[in-house]
Amino acid sequence: MKNLPKDIVNGLLSMVAIFGFISGEFILSTVLFATAALLANIDLNNRRLDHAENLSSR
User: Fold this and answer.
1) Contacts within 8 Å (CB) and 24+ apart, 16-22
2) Which of 5, 33, 53, 58 has the most CB atoms around its CB within 10 Å?
3) What confidence score (pLDDT) does residue 41 get?
4) Which runs of E-coded beta strand occur in 1-58?
5) Cα distance between residue 44 and residue 38, in whole Å
6) What per-residue confidence (pLDDT) applies to 38?
7) Distance from the Cα of residue 25 to its chain's centroid
8) Alpha-carbon distance 53 to 49, whole Å?
9) Total-model pTM
């Protein structure tokens, strides 16, 4: 449940980027898609690091 705010922000960024792309704001939509992708990857990398630390502490 702690990832819910990140998921909501990521979903909103993606939706705004899609609407921006449809309306012709290609530069803005590209920046929004890139931001959403970076936020998703940063979250995944943090989970991998936490998992690796838990395994090494055993």
Assistant:
1) none
2) 33
3) 81
4) none
5) 10
6) 87
7) 20
8) 6
9) 0.63
